[in-house]
Design a protein that fits this description.
Chain lengths: 113, 118
């Protein structure tokens, strides 16, 4: 399966600031996704990162708050904008290639003060 | 809306015993299911999957059972080991209609924490 690397692995940020999380895959993949996992909870899909076009956001998530880029088939970024303590979560990058199961990176643990 | 859920939020098992983790789903149109294992500080790790045209699938020490009649999914772990301690999530495939590429998304259950007693 693809090796997925996320940076940073964790960060502590001040409210009102923004943080960009990077996801790098060691091979080209068809699909890339971004999830949020709040403390002690399950995973919620934020958006599907589309190569060369705007991301597809799920209900409750908007581009202004979570802008996403995907310039090629191996890389994507998620920005968490104008952060508040409620944004403290684990943000996970996930990929899928063809009919293979979806695989996840180890996530970015974000705390906002 | 429809969602995936779990019957048991926590499960403690003696080392060497078998573990059974259950999951209920409500979307009758779902055709693909996955079990993930998430250890502390890590992302979800794929364990096993099953398509709706199957009732059972076996892996190494793990078996997934699918009962479409009652919309129930289970993960069985044989001879549970301390390294099996983790949170286990089931996920349900929901095919998205708006993508011409046939993209899909996974809806995750709430998770079950498995603790293995040495």
């Amino acid at each position: 399966s693809a090796v997925i690397s996320q940076k940073p692995s964790r960060d502590i940020c001040q409210r009102g600031t923004s943080l960009t999380i990077q996801c790098q895959v060691d091979s080209q993949v068809t699909m890339m996704f971004w999830y949020r996992q709040q403390p002690g909870q399950s995973l919620t899909l934020i958006a599907t990162a589309n190569q060369g076009s705007e991301a597809t956001y799920e209900s409750g998530f908007v581009i202004d708050k979570f802008p996403i880029s995907r310039p090629n088939l191996t890389f994507s970024t998620l920005t968490v904008s104008n952060m508040s303590p409620e944004d403290s979560s684990i943000y996970l990058c996930s990929v899928r290639q063809g009919e293979q199961p979806q695989h996840f990176g180890d996530g970015t643990r974000l705390s906002i003060l | 809306g429809e969602s995936v859920g779990l019957h048991l939020p926590t499960l403690s098992v003696q080392e060497g015993d078998n573990s059974i983790i259950n999951c209920a789903y409500s979307n009758s149109a779902s055709d693909y299911f996955i079990w993930y294992k998430q250890e502390s500080g890590k992302g979800p790790q794929f364990i096993i999957d099953i398509r709706s045209n199957m009732d059972k699938r076996q892996g190494q020490r793990v078996t997934v059972l699918l009962n479409k009649t009652v919309k129930h999914l289970s993960l069985q772990i044989a001879a549970t080991q301390p390294g099996d301690s983790a949170v286990y999530f089931c996920a349900e495939n929901m095919t998205l209609a708006y993508s011409g590429a046939g993209s899909y998304q996974l809806t995750f259950g709430k998770g079950t924490k498995l603790s293995v007693i040495p």
